[in-house]
């Protein structure tokens, strides 16, 4: 049973993604997906939280669209749930932002209380309000804000992630080590010691966060978007993935697609990576007939066997 637990559309993530939600779902069905998690980004609350691509033509107008867009997303997602129910099980969630906890925790709690929401993808995209996955210059600005120390930035990222995990306990922990996307550490990793010895303080925080997620029953996603963005390994990197497997942690699978062309991207490589780690089963949610969802394990062989094709890179 092929699936993704993390996806986006151009309809509800304009400028950052492509294509309508319905077209993306139709393509997933064509590829053999039997389940799909819809997880558009949650609304943000202030102009300073906008990404650079959202600042034109008017930051205030962009901000004003976010909450109504979330409302429209939930309405469309539930319509499509019914429309496609004979062909695919659609789960409805959203991806969190983590900026000012005192402000965002109540907002996330309110949004998650909507009965249409099945689960959260808990993600951190900012460190001290600076995006760390937008582009290389913005990442460099985040490093500069931490006295030019990439180690300090990694430390702050994993501290913010720990706060998020403790406060929200999301079912899916989104792209656990997203911080490495534009990092010089990632670019030079082949010539550097393992992270556990290169930055011991960072590694201690990683283990702390893995333990926190495991304690409440969270799943790490095997997120293949890292591969289409040019990284050598999916999220999480092997050293982290091995530690998670050693704890008995569970993986789910996500393409983190941002349009039709990215659905199922690099799933073959991602599933092979999991098998190299000794993982034989991945996890998703299944809708119960009377309402609500339950966990379901899917053998990787079954997952692979249901894919009719793989997404483009």
Could you describe the 3D structure shown?
Pfam families: PHP. Belongs to the PHP hydrolase family. HisK subfamily. Pathway: Amino-acid biosynthesis; L-histidine biosynthesis; L-histidine from 5-phospho-alpha-D-ribose 1-diphosphate: step 8/9. InterPro entries: Histidinol_P_phosphatase_HisJ (IPR010140), PHP_dom (IPR004013), Pol/histidinol_Pase-like (IPR016195). GO terms for molecular function: histidinol-phosphatase activity. The protein has 313 residues and is of the alpha/beta class. It has a single domain, classed as TIM Barrel. It has twelve helices and eleven strands. The strands form three sheets. It has a seven-stranded parallel sheet with strand order 1-2-3-4-7-8-9. A two-stranded antiparallel sheet has the order 5-6. Strands 10-11 form a two-stranded antiparallel ribbon. A hairpin with a 5-residue loop joins strand 10 and strand 11 (293-299). The two termini are 21 Å apart.
Compact summary:
The protein is of the alpha/beta class and 313 residues long. It is built from twelve helices and eleven strands.
Keywords:
alpha/beta; TIM Barrel; 12 helices; about 325 residues; two-stranded antiparallel ribbon; about 40% helix; seven-stranded parallel sheet
Per-chain topology:
Blueprint: E1 2-4, H1 21-30, E2 33-41, H2 59-83, E3 89-95, H3 101-112, E4 119-122, E5 126-127, E6 130-131, H4 136-144, H5 150-168, E7 172-173, H6 184-188, H7 195-198, H8 200-216, E8 219-223, H9 225-228, H10 238-246, E9 250-254, H11 267-276, E10 281-287, E11 293-299, H12 300-306
Parallel strand pairs: 1-2, 2-3, 3-4, 4-7, 7-8, 8-9
Antiparallel strand pairs: 5-6, 10-11
Helix pairs in contact: 3-5, 5-8
């Amino acid at each position: 049973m092929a699936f993704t637990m993390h996806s986006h559309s151009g309809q509800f993530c304009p400028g950052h993604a492509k294509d309508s939600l319905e077209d993306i779902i139709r393509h997933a069905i064509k590829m053999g997906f039997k389940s799909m998690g819809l997880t558009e980004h949650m609304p943000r609350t202030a102009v300073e939280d906008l990404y650079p691509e959202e600042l034109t033509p008017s930051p205030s107008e962009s901000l004003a669209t976010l909450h109504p867009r979330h409302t429209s997303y939930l309405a469309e997602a539930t319509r499509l749930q019914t429309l496609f129910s004979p062909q695919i099980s659609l789960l409805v969630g959203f991806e969190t932002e983590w900026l000012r906890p005192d402000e965002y925790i109540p907002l996330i709690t309110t949004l998650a209380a909507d009965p249409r929401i099945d689960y959260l993808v808990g993600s951190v995209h900012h460190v001290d309000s600076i995006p760390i996955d937008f582009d290389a210059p913005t990442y460099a600005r985040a490093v500069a804000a931490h006295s030019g120390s990439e180690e300090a930035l990694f430390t702050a990222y994993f501290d913010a992630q720990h706060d998020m995990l403790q406060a929200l306990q999301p079912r899916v922990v989104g792209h656990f080590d997203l911080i490495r996307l534009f990092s010089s550490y990632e670019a030079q990793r082949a010539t550097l010691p393992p992270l556990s010895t290169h930055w011991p303080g960072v590694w201690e925080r990683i283990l702390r966060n893995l333990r926190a997620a495991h304690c409440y029953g969270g799943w790490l996603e095997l997120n293949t978007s890292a591969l289409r963005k040019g990284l050598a390994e999916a999220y999480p990197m092997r050293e982290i993935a091995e530690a998670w497997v050693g704890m008995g942690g569970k993986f789910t699978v996500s393409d983190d697609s941002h349009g039709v062309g990215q659905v199922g991207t690099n799933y073959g490589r991602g599933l092979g990576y999991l098998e190299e780690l000794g993982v034989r089963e991945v996890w998703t949610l299944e809708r119960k007939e009377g309402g609500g969802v339950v966990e379901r394990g899917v053998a990787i062989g079954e997952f692979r066997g249901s894919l009719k094709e793989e997404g483009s890179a």
